Write a sequence for this structure.
């Protein structure tokens, strides 16, 4: 064999040895890494193939919880800042700066935004319901067509101004919040000024206007306890009658303000019933309360969160977003219930570890990721 061929073969052999040794080194490195603890995993990565995992924030927690928010969540909701009294406290004077900051943060961090909420009987300034003389229309003996038209114009103007500003940025809106009565004698709550002035029509008016302003937005009806037997039948009745009229309602928001004593099976039944209407389902305000932070209570909360998220994953074909109503127990509307995934020091609780892998216990998940 001539010398040049010999030289070529020996160089090729050397190159092959090098490639194999580098390859095996990187495999060894990976194998070594596999054994190394990975640290606290990101929920948004764990759930990216199931549904958006979101959190409600305030202007304050956007700053104080930014690290947790950016790492763990793929969606955010303004806890109060995008409600009528947050955006249009005085007629015609819109204050968007805090909402803008939240929306821009979300877009800069690859997160979606749920808009909460356009039409609600609470946190809505009085002026929405006053006539030209400053009298509360819903408290008058006679409500005139002029009164109704004035209130419709305000409703539609609020929706138009807000949704125009966030069109293409806020992908889903809680168009109407909490319209169903807790009193089984009625479908709609009787104490809502929207209902008292406009009757049931206010819901259709709101959804049709919302769809006209931003046809790309997903429009949700949002409420609490509509997963419970006492309320879900009337909710389905209302939604079905609107859907049958072609009202553009795309989904239902089940708020999910629960405790560890609440039935999970009842929730699962409700999810199937709303899905049968052809509606997308968002769990919009999830928090699960416990009376104290004893080891036993935290473990019970963890197990409840594990079961609930296992069930959500089972229905991820219709559940497309799960939002926690806050990030840590340091900032929650339920300050005595310790309801969230992170504790008052913003550390992961057993509940956090429980949803990291719902096929394992929270202790197993924590040990695996932290190398305990
Ligand atoms: O902004 C004022 C502040 O200026 C004032 O100093 C302070 C003390 O009075 O009050 C502040 O407003 C508070 C607001 O939260 C913002 O922090 C209101 O008093 C307080 O009532 C309001 O509570 C919110 C509640 O909705 C109002 O109904 C909660 O933070 C919020 O988590 C809660 O969220 C609702 C959802 O929107 C709908 N589903 C139920 C859920 C829980 O109620």
């Amino acid at each position: 064999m001539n010398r040049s061929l010999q030289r070529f073969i020996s160089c090729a052999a050397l190159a092959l040895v090098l490639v194999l040794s580098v390859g095996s080194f990187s495999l060894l490195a990976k194998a070594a890494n596999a054994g190394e603890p990975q640290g606290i995993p990101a929920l948004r990565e764990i759930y990216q193939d199931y549904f958006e995992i979101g959190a409600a924030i305030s202007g304050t927690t956007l700053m104080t919880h930014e690290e947790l928010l950016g790492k763990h969540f793929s969606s955010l909701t303004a806890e109060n800042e995008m409600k009528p009294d947050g955006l249009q406290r005085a007629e015609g004077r819109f204050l968007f700066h805090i909402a803008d900051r939240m929306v821009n943060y979300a877009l800069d961090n690859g997160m979606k935004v749920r808009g909460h909420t356009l039409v609600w009987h609470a946190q809505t300034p009085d002026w929405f319901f006053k006539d030209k003389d400053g009298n509360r229309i819903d408290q008058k003996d006679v409500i005139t067509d002029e009164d109704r038209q004035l209130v419709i114009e305000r409703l539609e103007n609020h929706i138009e101004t807000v949704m125009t500003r966030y069109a293409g940025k806020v992908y889903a809106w809680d168009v109407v919040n909490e319209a169903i009565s807790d009193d089984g004698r009625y479908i709609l709550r009787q104490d809502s000024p929207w209902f008292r002035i406009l009757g049931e029509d206010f819901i259709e008016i709101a959804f049709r206007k919302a769809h006209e302003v931003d046809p790309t937005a997903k429009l949700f009806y949002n409420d609490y306890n509509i997963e419970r037997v006492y309320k879900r039948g009337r909710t389905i009745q209302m939604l079905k009658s609107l859907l049958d009229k072609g009202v553009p309602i795309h989904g239902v928001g089940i708020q999910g303000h629960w405790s560890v004593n609440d039935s999970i099976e009842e929730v699962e039944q409700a999810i199937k019933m709303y899905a049968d209407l052809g509606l997308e389902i968002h769990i919009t305000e999830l928090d699960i309360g416990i009376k104290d932070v004893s080891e036993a209570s935290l473990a019970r909360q963890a197990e409840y969160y594990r079961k609930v998220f296992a069930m959500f994953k089972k229905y991820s074909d219709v559940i497309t977003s799960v939002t926690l109503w806050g990030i840590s127990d340091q900032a929650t509307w339920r300050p005595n219930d310790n309801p969230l995934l992170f504790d008052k020091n913003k550390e992961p609780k057993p509940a956090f570890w429980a949803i990291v892998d719902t096929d394992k216990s929270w202790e197993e998940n924590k040990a695996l990721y932290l190398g305990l």
In short: The longest strand covers residues 280-289. The chain is about 45% helix and 15% strand. Residues 41-370 form a domain with the TIM Barrel fold (CATH 3.20.20.80).
